[in-house]
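Researcher: Good morning. I'm working through a list of sequences from a screen, and I'd like to move beyond sequence-only analysis. For each chain I'm collecting a predicted structure so we can compare shapes side by side. This is the next one on the list. No need for commentary yet; just the structure.
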Amino acid sequence: MSSLSAKIQDVFNEPACERNRGKDAKARKEGCSKPLTPGAAAGGCAFDGAKIVLQPITDVAHLVHAPLACEGNSWDNRGAASSGATLWRTSFTTDLTELDVVMGQGERKLFKAIREIKEAYAPPAIFVYSTCVTALIGDDIEAVCKRAGEKFGLAVVPVNAPGLAGSKNLGNKLAAEALLDHVIGTVEPDDAGPYDINILGEFNLSGEFWMVKPLLDRLGIRVRACIPGDARYLDVASAHRARAAMLVCSTALINLARKMEERWDIPFFEGSFYGITDTSEALRNIAELLVRKGADPEILNRTQTLIAVEEAIAWRKLEAYRRRLQGKRVLLNTGGVKSWSIVHALMEIGMEIVGTSVKKSTVEDKERINQILKDDNHMFEQMAARDLYAMLSEHKADIMLSGGRTQFIALKAKTPWLDINQERQHPYAGYDGIVELVRQIDLAIHNPIWSQVREPAPWDCQPAVVDEPPGTKSETATLHTVQEFTATMADDFGEC
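Model: Good morning. Structure tokens for this chain:
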């Protein structure tokens, strides 16, 4: 665990993090993001974060060295999509039992599992994940992986990110360290060119990367590696020969982008493919970085021409929704790059942002929100469920965009809701993606069900007041009220 502790310290001493700049040496040791204590890893543990980053590498076998429950909890928990190999969707685990732990059979069982995967599937690589149990009993997965790699002649990559190490975000960074230590730079491509780029932190959720790749193809720009969305092992292993990189989610993989720049001189910028303006700006930045690294400056003109054409098409499609959504109020309960990129995208079509969560956002993300909204009162670090419910039930927002965990708050408040996190069913990146996002928002807000569920239930209505002589019973009035209600229901819905 000593090597793991050193790796964690290195990860959180991140020079590229804005919060860490300007600190003295003592303060910098605290890191740019304080990890949660074990047992308080809200939103996922370090193992979960590592699996999220690496599992979308599609032709690799992902072997979890743990009891069965660890793999069952983390398997395929995001909506990443693949265009080719499906091995990544096969669940592999050593399934340690109490007897294995007591008898010290963990490392032997791991070696056997690696051999079985090699013989049955012959993958280009096997990623081996440590977990809380195997870290606590002291299994040396690095030694086992090294021995298995020599024995079987394939890459066996140890991912030392047990859940007890900290939060999901820490696991993201430890997965990036595993790629830097064991994968990237291990294969020399024979087709490197001046228009090769890497996209870092793009997970291809619901196929979003496929909304952007055709734009790059039209510019003659090749994505050497998209890490991790729809990636292949050899692409990631040769990613060090790209000329430039775009970082989509800095809070997850900023250490990967910085160290690739230091080791292989691959300049990077942080951008977003959400919204028309941000997509155009990302394409311009990619072209400018490539020119800076020796590409033909003519690509700048081609990029500008493509942007003009695509923006005109997108704005023309959005006009049909602008009139219906102008002035509608949106509450964003998300984080990271979406906390500012979605804000900008929705404001472009005239929607009003009443609040956006910044729980998982970096200092740079928060600064962008300030520049866009001109008011930090719209940012909240964390909002309790009761506060979210109160805000929505008081009709301070017309729709909430969030992940699946808070959808029931919106539904209980009888407020439209749309999923924009990893479980979503529609891609929202690129020019076509923002049109789809706006279309889904329009469908959610103007769904006729909301006007119906907000009406009082028939049994909550006050019964009709019937004048009766003093001293008479109310059975007649009650019967009269029931008959009227029955007749009304029959008119609305027809006789049974």
